[in-house]
Design a protein that fits this description.
By secondary structure, the chain is α+β, with helices and mostly antiparallel strands. Helices cover about 20% and strands about 30% of the residues. It has 5 helices and 10 strands; from the N terminus they run H-E-E-E-H-E-E-E-H-E-E-H-E-E-H. Strands 3, 4, 5, 6, 7 and 8 form a 6-stranded antiparallel sheet that branches. Strands 1-2 form a two-stranded antiparallel sheet. The protein is elongated and about 175 Å long.
Length: about 280
């Protein structure tokens, strides 16, 4: 092969290499410009239940591309030792608003907002087994019993039911072990509700009656005016006609008929009308 051909091939190889390098640099710069920046944040290494005090074994780190979630914790030391106020799932970033304040510890107390209280009530097995009283749910609280002032022997008015609280958040639900009248241990369904101090007093009095929880839609925050229902209302005849109030109209006395009298004053005579508007004036 002569020298001229080798020179041409060498020049062609150099030009192709230069073009390839230029194209690679242009594509690489565009790809780097389009690739979003990543940030390493603290996440849950496994499912973390409510009330847990975080330890290093509960935590890991993950890379998040693009914008970082608001309140995301970037350093593990900012999360260790703080209580979890809402359940966190494996791989989920740890957010500051999902943790209790520094130094408040863990457990149920750390989940109570300022100014609120956690009130524990006993519910029956039907409510407990139903499983709808889970943390975060919203319920109404009903009581059933004999209203004060009624004779327990005759129960003239009968048992009544009334809604005492509405749109109450469930903090936790579980089983407590208590002793019955014979001293034997028995499981009791206990539900903790998030209430105000005034509502806590209401629940304290209501605990002497039978308490029932009614599930409601969390998006339905309207408070309705609910009238109580008595036992006698359940057995009332729905077709019975209600007594119609008859309006009593007071009888108007007939106005007295006017009359006139003749007045004689010496030689003068005049007529005086009695019972007329002119006479009243």
């Amino acid at each position: 092969m002569n020298r001229r051909v080798l020179t041409i091939l060498l020049l062609a190889f150099v030009v192709a290499s230069a073009c390839g390098f230029i194209v690679w640099r242009m594509l690489g710069s565009r790809l780097n410009a389009q690739a979003p920046a990543t940030t390493r944040v603290v996440a849950a290494a496994a499912d973390i239940p409510l009330g847990t005090v975080l330890t290093p074994s509960n935590l890991t780190t993950i890379e998040i591309a693009g914008a970082v979630p608001k309140g995301a914790i970037l350093k593990a030391e900012n999360a260790v030792g703080r209580g979890v106020v809402a359940e966190i799932y494996q791989g989920e970033p740890i957010l500051d608003n999902r943790l209790a304040a520094v130094g408040s510890g863990g457990g149920l107390a750390a989940t109570i907002p300022p100014g609120m209280r956690a009130a524990a009530i006993h519910v029956d097995d039907v409510v407990g087994v139903a499983g709808f009283v889970t943390p975060g749910m919203r319920v109404d609280v009903l009581i059933s019993g004999l209203p004060p002032g009624n004779d327990p022997k005759t129960q003239a008015a009968g048992t009544a039911s009334r809604t005492i609280l509405q749109n109450i958040q469930v903090l936790s639900a579980g089983t407590d072990i208590q002793k019955d009248a014979d001293g034997k241990a028995k499981p009791v369904q206990v539900v903790n509700l998030l209430v105000t101090p005034d509502q806590a007093e209401t629940l304290s009095l209501a605990s002497q009656q039978k308490i029932q929880l009614v599930l409601r839609n969390p998006l339905d925050t309207k408070t309705d005016q609910v009238a109580g229902t008595a036992m006698v209302d359940l057995f009332a005849d729905p077709n019975a006609k209600k007594p119609v109030a008859v309006a009593r109209v007071a009888a108007h006395k007939a106005a007295p008929q006017p009359f006139s009298i003749e007045v004689i004053n010496g030689s003068k005579r005049s007529q005086e009308k009695i019972g007329t508007p002119e006479e009243k004036q």
